[in-house]
């Protein structure tokens, strides 16, 4: 038994409990309710507008649901530092109106229940660890490659926080030799997100990714940038599983290209059988399909009901 286990008292979550879940994305919000087993029983989705209006819709949704806890996986950056005066706030986002918004406090003024609060990608990593592709593992890393690139880290049974939280979408990556695209990150130009997000694909080629044929050179370049970052993650964190989600990863031919390039970059240096067998079971699509974020938020809500939920 670990220290953490011994601090838990016997209070299993009531199997009939109703738990709220919020997947708060920069483009859209998904709210749902679910069971402690991970079944989502109802949901609603709406575009992310100004914060007050958006939270009004969230509060309206949960008003008659009688939830016993709520889990939130939010776009960010967000403040997760316990004890911070701005804990629960969205911090430096360029998204109009949201910088400095007290997300968690606004919710708590309407619902006096335990709340779990983390980044959207940490929530997705957690969902995958509890019910998805990394079920039963003590660590995994979850990438979303979509409007932005985000990376969530579950390590040693905990979601990784620190100064703030990992911002793996913005790591520097080596440039592909045939790529003259300047990059579009407002902070870093040609960081991973600047080179590999869905909008970066569209800017580079003049059409969105879903209009590019599988044999278009775009995909080899896309795989290059994602593989740069995935190889770094393997070497830096040694996670037991890496999961790639998000809209761009709907291109099913992309994952094998990334696996091949990751294998070249690691080049046999990390002597783990998971990496020697073609990475097919190591570098994978989400086990929860497009539900990793919402189910992860549900799992955060369930965890918030535990007597000691400071993970
Ligand atoms: P978000 O990141 O906003 O939560 P998504 O993960 O769906 O949402 O990402 C949207 C981005 O992914 C857009 O830039 C879009 O062009 C791109 N995208 C979505 N679906 C596909 C697809 N099937 N093929 C390639 N790109 C896609
Ligand atoms: Zn950046």
UniProtKB/TrEMBL annotation:
SUPFAM superfamilies referenced in this protein's UniProt entry, alphabetically: Actin-like ATPase domain
Cofactor(s) in the UniProt record: Mg(2+)
The keyword Magnesium is annotated on this UniProt entry: yes
Keyword Glycosyltransferase assigned: no
Entry keyword set: Magnesium, Metal-binding, Zinc
Catalytic activity line of the entry: D-fructose + ATP = D-fructose 6-phosphate + ADP + H(+)
InterPro entries, per the entry: ATPase_NBD, Carb_Metab_Reg_Kinase/Isom, ROK, ROK_cs
EC code: 2.7.1.4
Superkingdom classification of source: Bacteria
UniProt family annotation: Belongs to the ROK (NagC/XylR) family.
Designated name of the protein: fructokinase
Organism of origin: Saccharibacillus endophyticus
Lineage per the UniProt record: Bacteria, Bacillati, Bacillota, Bacilli, Bacillales
Gene responsible for this protein: cscK
């Amino acid at each position: 038994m670990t220290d953490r286990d011994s601090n838990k008292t016997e209070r299993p979550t009531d199997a009939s409990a109703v738990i709220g879940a919020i997947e708060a994305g920069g483009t859209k919000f998904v709210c749902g309710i679910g069971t402690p087993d991970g079944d989502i029983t109802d949901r609603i989705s709406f575009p992310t507008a100004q914060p007050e209006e958006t939270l009004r819709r969230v509060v309206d949704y949960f008003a008659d649901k009688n939830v016993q806890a709520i889990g939130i996986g939010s776009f960010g950056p967000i403040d997760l530092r316990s004890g911070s005066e701005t804990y629960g706030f969205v911090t430096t986002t360029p998204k109009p109106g949201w910088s400095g918004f007290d997300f968690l406090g606004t919710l708590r003024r309407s619902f006096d229940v335990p709340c779990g609060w983390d980044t959207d990608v940490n929530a997705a990593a957690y969902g995958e660890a509890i019910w998805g592709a990394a079920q039963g593992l003590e660590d995994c890393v979850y990438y979303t490659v979509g409007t932005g690139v985000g990376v969530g880290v579950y390590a040693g049974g905990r979601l990784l926080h620190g100064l703030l939280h990992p911002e793996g979408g913005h790591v520097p990556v080596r440039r592909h030799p045939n790529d003259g695209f300047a990059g579009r990150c407002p902070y870093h130009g040609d960081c991973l997100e600047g080179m590999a997000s869905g909008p970066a694909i569209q800017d580079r080629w003049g059409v969105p990714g879903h209009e590019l044929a599988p044999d278009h050179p775009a995909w080899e370049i896309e795989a290059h940038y994602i593989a740069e970052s995935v190889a770094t993650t393997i070497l830096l964190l040694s996670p037991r599983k890496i999961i790639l989600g998000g809209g761009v990863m709907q291109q099913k031919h992309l994952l094998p290209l990334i696996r091949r390039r990751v294998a070249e970059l690691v080049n046999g240096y990390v002597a783990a059988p998971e990496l020697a067998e073609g990475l097919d079971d190591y570098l994978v699509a989400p086990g929860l399909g497009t539900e990793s974020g919402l189910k992860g938020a549900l799992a955060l809500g369930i965890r918030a009901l535990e007597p000691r939920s400071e993970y």
